[in-house]
Amino acid sequence: MSRVSDVDRDRAVELVQQAYADGRLDPAELEARLERALTATSAHELAPVVADLPGEEPVRLESVGGRVTRTGDWQVPRRLRIDSEYGSVRLDLTQAHAPYAQVDIELRLAYGRALIILPAGASADADGVRTEWGRVICKAPGRPRPGGLHVHVAGELPYGRLIIRSSRKR
């Protein structure tokens, strides 16, 4: 289970306050959500506080003929969009900080390939991926697990290839 930081809680508080300012929440719900956001210790506790609220725009990564690589200790955004033509994508989540219960990844790979490596206890689905001559292989559990990260992958891979797998034990 991923622990949340003060930055994660502050981000959730900002989303809740913005939803209140937009008229999406009444004062009682604002107070309840702020209390839950400020006392959350895990991603599993924090995610429901903001799950039904409009979020931030996805973080966008783009490449033409190059590589998009994220490995080691990196901050996984709630929503990530990757556009790559003739390139490769490698997202290794095994040591990454993912403070959300679910991460949404949108892939647009023309002729490229993508590899997503999940941490122990995580699940994933590629139900939103459309392909023509491409290939999608998901070797990870498809149903979300309590307390574990779930990665939802969508997008288009006309001639691309996507592999989603759990980390290999060493």
Average predicted local confidence, pLDDT: 89
What is the H-and-E element order? HHHEEEEEEEEEE
Task: Give the terminus-to-terminus CA distance.
Answer: 21 Å
* Uncertain residue ranges: none
**Total count of strands:** 10
Structural class: alpha/beta
Count of alpha and pi helical runs: 3
Q: Please give the largest β-sheet.
A: 5 strands, parallel
Rg, rounded, reads 17 Å
Name the assembly state: single chain
Strand order of the largest sheet: 1-3-5-9-7
Number of domains: 2
How would you describe this structure to a colleague?
The protein has 170 residues and is an alpha/beta fold. Helices cover 22% and strands 37% of the residues. The strands form 2 sheets. It has a 5-stranded parallel beta sheet, with no helix packed on it.
Features:
170 residues; alpha/beta; 2 domains; 5-stranded parallel beta sheet; 10 strands
How do the helices and strands line up, and which of them pair or pack?
Blueprint: H1 6-21, H2 27-39, H3 43-50, E1 59-64, E2 67-70, E3 79-85, E4 88-92, E5 102-109, E6 113-118, E7 123-131, E8 135-138, E9 150-157, E10 161-166
Helix pairs in contact: 1-2, 2-3
Domain DUF1707: 3-54
Protein name: DUF1707 domain-containing protein
Organism: Nonomuraea rubra
